[in-house]
Amino acid sequence: MSAARREELTRRGFLGGALAGGALCLGVSLAGGASGCGGGQRRMIRRADQTGELSPNMYITVKRDGRVALALGKVEMGQGVATCYSTLVAEELEVPVDHIDTTFADSLPEFRTSGAEGVPLFRIHATGGSTSTAEAYVPLRRAAAAAREMLVAAAARRWGVRAADCTALAGRVLHRASGRAAGYGSLTTGAAREEVPEEPRLKRPGEFRVIGVHSRRVDARAKVLGQTRFGIDTAVPGMVRALVIHGPVYGAEPVRVRAGAARRSPGVPGLPGLIDVFPFRWGVAVVAEKYWQALRAARLVEVEWGKGMVEGLSTAELQRAARAYRGAGLAVRSEGDAAAALDGPESLAAVYEVPYLAHAPMEPQNCIVALRGDTAEVWAPCQVPTVIQEAVAGAVGIASGDVLVHTTFAGGGFGRRLLGDVAVQAALIARRVGRPVQLIWSRESDMGQGFYRPAATAFLRGAVARDGRVAALSCHSLSQPITPHQLESLRGGQPAW
To answer: What is the dihedral of CA 107, 138, 189, 71, to 10 degrees?
Structure first.
């Protein structure tokens, strides 16, 4: 990648050019340590002197108007991470929650999580495993607290008083003895010259005024008013729309495609409309200027399908196989002699079964991919931008560092958006037509070609003693691993690693 391209990605990666006016930015790694923005304090000062703002890096930016910009290293898919992270920052930075503006961090290495105590170590930019709050609870508060202490120190230096005699409250620094006060926005340039505290003081739970109290969703109003832009709402100049006709069986590939009727459909020839119909690994791509045009044309396409990788498989067959399974498996916990207790007349037995289940998020799978030479730009409601980077790069043969992913709000995810399959399909279609492509899966495809929660069967046996206490319990759970055995069936939805 050229130096100019790297600089462009770095500038755009944090807040997408949304910062205006003077600002104080403080970054912190998820591993915990606070650090100055842009690689050092000298750069912070130089940037402040030249432009009135500091070069942003990582999460927290205090602007000259006193508002706080918070870059989310997680996707908001309805689980409330935007509210959670805003609450953590508001608590330690001493600002009202509604003074915080959230935006999504892009797919740059700075935002790859490194885990926290008791939290799975992802080491990628990802939202999953129900770990977002645990990962950020201390590090994000520490970042906010460090910014608060820098602002307090700047005010104390200006007034010639001790920082210990000043207090941060409601976006201002107060010196109660003299009655002086200064808003955060007026202190950003001075705060840039203060040393970044490595171990800022964090509030004790008894001092909390926001955590455990604030309950209003920070994104609720915009969603109610229709102002929130989800992936499916996003558009870029020159974009065309596409859908994929998927086979009737998971993994089926097209053998023969007849698209003549679609190309001759009324209102298409000679007018902006249908652009291309072609088979590829996942099915048949239909590309048009408008999504409804692609949908109309797709209904006229005749496809002869090959056998899918799960031809003939059914829930009933899976349940029969599970009930017949007699393997020993892995003993997670074993205490006492349950087998002996279960041989008595007071034992009970039951089998619990659940089939493969689609995640079925409200917003169907969608993605925009724009290819420009040896670079790619992606807009997606995704849970793992790192996977999107790697998967798109592998699909079109470019370096992953040359793929910039913009995360959008997601209308549900539940783990389905951990994969990059829709982005790979969009990238291949974009390469074929030579224009940015928005691919939207139909609801039928979303249900029939998804990444499913595996089927599971649990065999339970129990025994009750005469006094009513549980005497024995045996549980044998049989299921499929979530990812290792499905990587082949994902067919490009995950990176090579």
So the answer is: 30
**At residue 122, what is the residue type?**
F
Let me know the angle formed at the C-alpha of 462 by 456 and 468, rounded to the nearest 5 degrees. Answer: 140
Instruction: Give 10-residue mean pLDDT values along the chain (497 residues).
Output: 41 29 45 44 73 59 89 94 96 96 81 62 81 92 91 96 97 97 92 88 96 92 96 97 93 93 66 84 94 93 90 88 86 89 85 93 97 97 93 94 95 92 96 98 90 90 89 91 53 61
Nearest to 411 by CA among 431, 438, 382, 437: 382
- 3-state DSSP assignment of residue 215: coil
What is the pTM (predicted TM-score) of this model? 0.85
Cα 48 to Cα 6, 52, 110, 191, 323, distances in angstroms: 22, 4, 22, 10, 68
Give the residue among 402, 451, 401, 395 at the shortest CA–CA distance from 426.
395
Q: What are φ and ψ of residue 169, in 5° steps?
A: -160, 130
Residues 64 and 75 sit within 8 Å (Cβ to Cβ): no
What 3 state SS string does 328-372 have? CCCCCCCCCCHHHHHCCCCEEEEEEEECCECCCCCCCCEEEEEEE
Strand order across the beta sheet in which 274-280 lies: 274-280, 283-288, 240-245, 437-440, 366-372, 375-380, 403-407
- What strand order describes the sheet that includes 180-183? 167-169, 172-175, 180-183
**CA separation for the pair 260, 297 (Å, rounded):** 10
Q: Which residues contact 75 (CB under 8 A, 6 or more apart)?
A: 81, 104, 127, 381, 382, 383, 407, 409, 410, 413, 417
